[in-house]
């Protein structure tokens, strides 16, 4: 099996991220959500959309960067650490955003 280049992984990640953002914006128009402090954010409110976008664009990739850093210590030691980290980080993001997109699509059905 051929290796997937980092450019292809990044383009797949970008497409999945855009599709997830669009799906989440449509989903927030239908339902509101409770915050961690117990307050309720109304459907289609700016606060809800901003917090959802912050979570999917910043929080999740930051968490997965830490996970990728640990995994890169042990995997494929032939490559340099930087190349291992980037490749593992992109793979984790692609897998997560693909699963997240499936979950969003199942909510629309």
Secondary-structure map with pairings?
Layout: H1 6-30, E1 33-34, E2 40-41, H2 46-72, H3 81-108
Antiparallel strand pairs: 1-2
Helix pairs in contact: 1-2, 1-3, 2-3
Transmembrane segments: 9-26, 46-73, 85-106
Keywords: Membrane, Transmembrane, Transmembrane helix
Task: Please tell me about this protein's structure.
- With about 110 residues, the protein is mainly α.
- It has a domain at about 5-25 and about 55-109.
- Helix content is about 75%, strand content about 5%.
- It contains three helices and two strands.
- A two-stranded antiparallel ribbon has the order 1-2.
- A hairpin with a 5-residue loop joins strand 1 (about 35) and strand 2.
- Helix 1 packs antiparallel against helix 2 and helix 2 (about 45-70) runs antiparallel to helix 3.
- The mean pLDDT is about 90.
Summarize the structure.
The chain is mainly alpha-helical and 109 residues long.
Please supply descriptive tags for the structure shown above.
109 residues, mainly alpha, two-stranded antiparallel sheet, elongated, transmembrane
């Amino acid at each position: 099996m051929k290796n997937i280049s980092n450019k292809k992984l990044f383009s797949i990640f970008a497409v999945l991220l855009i599709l997830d953002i669009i799906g989440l914006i449509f989903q927030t128009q239908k339902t509101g959500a409770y915050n961690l402090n117990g307050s309720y954010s109304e459907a289609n409110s700016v606060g809800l959309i901003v917090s959802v976008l912050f979570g999917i664009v910043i929080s999740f990739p930051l968490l997965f960067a830490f996970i990728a850093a640990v995994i890169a210590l042990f995997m494929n030691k032939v490559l340099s650490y930087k190349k291992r980290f980037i490749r593992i980080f992109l793979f984790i993001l692609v897998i997560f955003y693909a699963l997240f997109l499936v979950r969003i699509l199942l909510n629309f059905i």
